[in-house]
Write a structure and sequence with these properties.
- The chain contains two helices and ten strands.
- It has 143 residues and is of the alpha+beta class.
- The protein has one domain: Hotdog Thioesterase (Thiol Ester Dehydrase, Chain A), CATH 3.10.129.
- The protein is globular and about 40 Å long.
- The strands form three sheets. Strands 5-6-8-9-10-7 form a six-stranded antiparallel beta sheet, with helices on one face. Strands 1-2 form a two-stranded antiparallel ribbon.
Length: 143
């Protein structure tokens, strides 16, 4: 498979989609999320905060932070089950502890894998090594 494709009508080169641990997730690709690992019930992703991802306070928009936490938890759950279709979020609770700025690293952890429901948590860490947000959630394999 080619590593680039040419859009014939514009003549521009586009990079191929990023593999998010075997899944194509265009929204995460658009955000520039870097998948680092997902194995053994743990996951890590990162993203460089861009101005267009900030709110009126010039820090990461809460929607971006929640997107990252959601995916990190789902990836941690999927790393154990190896479910090829991904995970569906049942519920998610998020606490914002301090503003998120700079490069953000998000680490997800599977707390308990059930038959149909998986319990997870995730944290966002800033460049200074401080936790800026944390989340817990439940997930089920997509059917």
């Amino acid at each position: 498979m080619s590593t680039t494709k040419i859009a014939s009508d514009t003549g521009t080169t586009q990079k191929p989609p990023t593999s998010f641990f075997g899944l194509n997730i265009p929204f995460l690709d658009h955000l520039g999320v870097v998948p680092e690992f997902a194995e053994g019930g743990k996951s890590r992703i990162s993203v460089e905060l861009k101005p267009e991802y900030t709110n009126s306070f010039d820090v990461a928009h809460g929607g971006l932070v929640m997107t990252l936490l959601d995916f990190a938890m789902a990836a941690a759950a999927r790393s154990i089950t190896k479910h090829p279709l991904g995970m569906i979020t049942i519920d998610m609770t998020t606490s914002f502890l301090r503003p998120s700025v700079g490069k953000l690293v998000v680490e997800g952890t599977l707390l308990k894998a059930g038959k149909t429901v998986h319990y997870c948590e995730a944290v966002v860490i800033n460049e200074a090594g401080e936790m800026t947000a944390k989340s817990s959630g439940t997930f089920t394999p997509r059917k």
